C-alpha cells in the first residue's frame, strides 16, 4: 500500500488538473460563476435560520453562527460523497484509455469540493467577525478540523466510488443515506437536549464520524473553547480507519473496472 500511495502522489499534477477542470466546468456557463460558492450556502443557511427562528424557534444564541459552523462543513462532506461516488463511472472513457491510479478521480473530486469549502469559510469568517461571537485563539485548531474532515470525506468517497462501478444504484442510494445522515448529525440542533432525553443517542453521535467533526468546528468557531481530547482524537481515528479501508477496498475492486465500465 505504501508503494501505491507513492504512485498516487506522483500524479499530483493530474489531481490538480482534474480538480481545476471540475471547478471551471461547474461555474463555466453560470452568470455569477464562483460567487455561487458563497451564495448557495448563504441561501441554505438563511432558509434554516428562518425556519428554526420563527417556525420552530431555537433557544441557541446567535443561531445563524451555530448553524453556519455546522452547515458549511456538512455541505462539503455531502457534495464530496454524492459526486465522488460517481467520479469513476463519469470518467469511464479516460479510465479505459490511459493508465493512472484510479484513486486520482475521487481524490480530485473531493479536492475540488474542498476548495469550495475554503471559499465558503470566508463567508463564515465574515459573519463571525461582525457578530457578537467573534474569534478567539482557538481558531488555530481550524486547519486540523479541515484536515480530518477532508480525510474522512476522501475515505468515504473512495469506498463509494469503487462500489458504484459494480452497483450503479449506489450513486442514488448515497443521496438517500445523506438525507438521513444530516439529521443524525447535530447540525441544526444542539446535541445536549437530545442526549438528555435519549441517553443512547450519545453513543450514536460518537460512532458518527461527522458528529465528531461538528463538535470540532463548533468548539473552535462558536463556543471558543479547546475541544476535548476525545473530540480531537476520535475524528482523527475515523480519518485513518476510513482512508485505509477505502484504499484497501479500492485496490481490491479496481482490477475489473475496465470490464465493468
What can you see in these coordinates?
The radius of gyration is 19 Å and the shape is globular. 35% of the residues are buried. The longest helix has 27 residues. α6 runs antiparallel to α7 and α7 runs parallel beside α12. The protein is mostly helical. It contains 13 helices and no strands.
* Estimated share of beta-strand residues: under 5%
Largest sheet properties: none
The radius of gyration is 19 Å
State the total count of DSSP E strands: 0
* Structure class: mainly alpha
Distance between the termini: 25 Å
Q: Classify the helix fraction into a percent range.
A: over 70%
Shape: globular
Give structural attributes:
mainly alpha
Question: How do you describe this structure in short?
Answer:
The protein is mainly alpha-helical and 261 residues long. The chain has 13 helices and no strands. Helix 11 (209-223) crosses helix 12.
Write the layout of secondary structure elements.
Elements (H helix, E strand, L loop, with lengths): L1 H8 L2 H16 L8 H20 L7 H22 L7 H6 L6 H27 L11 H25 L3 H12 L9 H7 L3 H6 L2 H15 L5 H25 L3 H4 L1
